[in-house]
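Troubleshooting log. The previous structure file for this entry was overwritten by mistake, so regenerating from the original sequence record. Sequence copied from the archived sheet and checked twice against the printout by T.R.
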Amino acid sequence: MYAFTLERPANVADAAKLAAAGGKVLAGGQTLLASMKLRLSAPEQLVDLGGIKELAGIKKEGNAFVIGAMTRHLDVGSHAEIKAAFPALAWLADHIGDRQVRAMGTIGGSVANNDPAACYPSAVLASGATVVTSKREIAADDFFLGLFTTALEEDELITAIRFPIPKRAAYEKLRQKASNFPLVGVFVTQGDSGVRVAVTGAGNGVFRHKGLEDALTKSFSPEAAAGVKIDSSDLNSDLHASAAYRANLINVLTQRAVKKALG
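Regenerated output below.
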């Protein structure tokens, strides 16, 4: 392993200063450490957020859950209040990767990395969640900008994510067996303002599907989703699945998610 320094700041302000000076932020490390081992990334300084206690934890505020950025997937998936009030979010967290990944991976790390096949961005976008940072609050619709790209500035850290609790919600995905990342994942929520549908794994980043949202706002049923044609022209095609196959998966998984949300 090549030489690098490891910093463990005690608070968010110090961590932000180190990040602004060029330090690479380390949350759960599920992507960063693997990329370092493969020599795809070679930071000279790591900024470990693990010692900042204020970044971890879950609390309910009104009709929303506020989840600290350093909260592990395992803790979200096993949280009794989330399982009762927002079971789709708990199910998503409990089905990320394998148990080792869930024990180390963090919600903030996943959302900040914005892997195009990550599960959490779909929950954030479909929920209309708010990303709380060291500088401001960013609406989900303004946060995800494309492949591994977000609205975060160099010295800006996610501190928490605020999830409004929907009336109904569900997440469905088809895993790629070797990596456990979804070939396609679909998160559906129904709330007072209508239906939101977020898709991950199918394109160059998480995205909402307006056709499915419009159809399901009119009629929240699997049949309504089945009637929506999915355009494959902007979807990924690779050795795992063609764009046409992913388009079909979006439709099928949305139908399953709606059926699950209806109980």
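The chain is about 35% helix and 25% strand. Archived copy saved in two places this time.
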